């Protein structure tokens, strides 16, 4: 009987320790976390899907379908390129740099951006955008539609915008943005680069 009591006490202590470990940790994606750098692959094999930054298990399974059509697709490298494109596009739109924007956008998105830039220029306004921290990028979808590769990236960013009107003083606004950007490219095309095809709001 005494032996059973001791065993129950040991089991209870182990369970309490495990429960404390779970409750004591943050769960889910934390706003202040940035997409982690890819960790080294095990010796002699590819990196597991779980180690790919910003990619959950379901998305990793979808990525496998894209890789079947495009073996060179690397989620980690794609996300880094998407984040650089995101910063370039945001800054380019703010400053009205059409030449910087054109190779990064589909024709329909370029037309929309040009209309916004032209409207701002007609008002005589100037705008500058800067990032307070490195934006976070998470891969939400990667798939193939006919001959097009499609990838959706969720961006979280903290930004500072400075708008200078034709007359009057500049206004400065700091804000946090959450957006879902869809990138596309044609498989087998001479140009391997992705282009922004759609922008929509996302939950923070």
Provide a concise account of the structure shown.
By secondary structure, the chain is an alpha+beta fold. Helix content is 37%, strand content 27%.
Total number of strands: 5
How much is the average pLDDT?
79
- Class from secondary-structure proportions: alpha+beta
> What's the N-to-C terminus distance?
56 Å
- H/E order of the elements? HHHHHEEEEE
Principal-axes shape call = globular
% residues in beta strands: 25-35%
Q: Helix proportion of residues, in percent?
A: 25-40%
Rg, please? Answer: 23 Å
Number of helices: 5
Strand count, sense and barrel status of the largest sheet are:
5 strands, antiparallel
Low-pLDDT stretches? 1-51
Describe the protein's architecture and organization.
With 204 residues, this protein is an alpha+beta fold. The protein has helices at 2-23, 57-69, 75-95, 98-101, 107-122, and strands at 126-131, 136-145, 148-164, 171-186, 195-201. Strands 1, 2, 3, 4 and 5 form a five-stranded antiparallel β-sheet that branches. The radius of gyration is 23 Å and the shape is globular. The model is unreliable at 1-51 (pLDDT under 50).
Task: Walk me through the topology.
Layout: H1 2-23, H2 57-69, H3 75-95, H4 98-101, H5 107-122, E1 126-131, E2 136-145, E3 148-164, E4 171-186, E5 195-201
Antiparallel strand pairs: 1-3, 2-3, 3-4, 4-5
């Amino acid at each position: 009987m005494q032996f059973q009591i001791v065993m129950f006490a040991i089991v209870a202590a182990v369970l309490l320790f495990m429960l404390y470990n779970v409750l004591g940790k943050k769960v889910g994606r934390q706003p202040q976390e940035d997409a982690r750098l890819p960790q080294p692959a095990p010796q002699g094999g590819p990196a597991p899907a779980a180690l790919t930054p910003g990619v959950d298990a379901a998305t990793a399974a979808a990525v496998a379908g894209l890789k079947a059509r495009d073996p060179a697709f690397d989620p980690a490298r794609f996300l880094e390129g998407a984040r650089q494109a995101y910063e370039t596009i945001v800054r380019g739109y703010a400053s009205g740099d059409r030449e910087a924007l054109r190779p990064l956008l589909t024709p329909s998105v370029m037309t929309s951006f040009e209309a916004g830039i032209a409207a701002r220029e007609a008002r005589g306004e100037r705008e500058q955008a800067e990032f307070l921290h490195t934006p976070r990028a998470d891969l939400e979808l990667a798939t193939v539609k006919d001959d097009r590769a499609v990838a959706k990236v969720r961006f979280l960013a903290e930004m500072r915008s400075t708008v200078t009107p034709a007359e009057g003083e500049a206004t400065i606004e700091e804000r946090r943005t959450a957006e879902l950007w869809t990138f596309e490219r044609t498989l087998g095309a001479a140009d391997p680069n992705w282009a922004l095809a759609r922008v929509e709001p996302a939950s923070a």
